[in-house]
Amino acid sequence: MKLKxxxxxxxxxxxxxxxxxxxxxxxxxxxIYVIDDCCPENSGDFVTANCKDERVxxxxxxxxxxxxxxxxxxxxxxxxxxxxxxxxIDGDGQMDPDLILDFVxxxxxxxxxxxxxxxxxxxxxxxxxxxxxxxxxxxxxxxxKVSSGxxxxxxxxxxxxxxxxxxxRHLPFHKISQRYFFETDMLFRLNTLRAVVIDVPMEAKYGNxxxxxxxxxxxxxxxxxxxxxxxxxxxxxxxLRDMSLASIELPVSIALLGFGFAYGGYHWIYSAHKDIPxxxxxVMMSALPILVGxxxxxxxxxxxxxxxxxxxxxxxxxxxxxxxxxxxx
Length: 329
Hints:
Elements: E1 5-11, H1 15-22, E2 29-36, H2 43-50, E3 56-60, H3 66-80, E4 85-88, H4 100-108, E5 114-118, H5 131-148, E6 161-164, H6 165-168, H7 182-193, E7 197-201, H8 215-240, H9 245-274, H10 280-306, H11 313-316
Parallel strand pairs: 1-2, 1-4, 2-3, 5-7
Antiparallel strand pairs: 4-6, 5-6
Helix pairs in contact: 5-8, 7-8, 9-10
């Protein structure tokens, strides 16, 4: 059975590029959802007046919900219409529609639940990326690895993604961040489902489009949300849903490190205040817990890195085949 592929395009201040994007889709796309996110350029009306592609469906928001809110609206519409795989791309022309099948292929093959772009795969082409974006993505990628648990991924803010409908149905749409933290929050939510996520190599195009993302404005917000997701993921995966050796290693490492630094810090301040040398035994009493605590912390990180999901969720969701009459069970 041929799977129905849908494309979801959040539309906000992309009127100059949206028609070129819509005209570039091939016959493999079954439906195209353009989400007018209360666009000041009235992109929904603009597409309606200038695009005659019958696959295009215009959905309008009465208030701006951000890229995440627009994508969730598109996902819900695709679920309601019985689509099988949803591909999200931006309407600013930075993402090559010819790569859609590259994103869909691993999902169709049952190898992944969610595919996302990675602009860092080809090191020779990274120089084309603006230096500020390059640095910002490197920092955000490390923070995302820690908070989401997908240590095998890079370029977390990449908006070129594809997801299987059976996985999208399990996402808590009302809880996912609606603004610029959307792509990263999606990875956290997917990890709580134990979904398999892979990177797809791609090359970004940078033209005369204007980015609405201001690094200085979202840096603090991103850090706070990463920390929140990290603690929630640790609690969900290591204490609420399952227990493992890592569940013991983490609190033991925190206790040992806390004791070592507190004990050592107190005696260092005391010795400095009294102007006397710190006894070697006291130094060892603080150093040993720190060294052992670091070993336990490294052990936890090793367990966490090794626990990246590898079994696709949507394959598990398939109904078991009923044996033919006359065959043994």
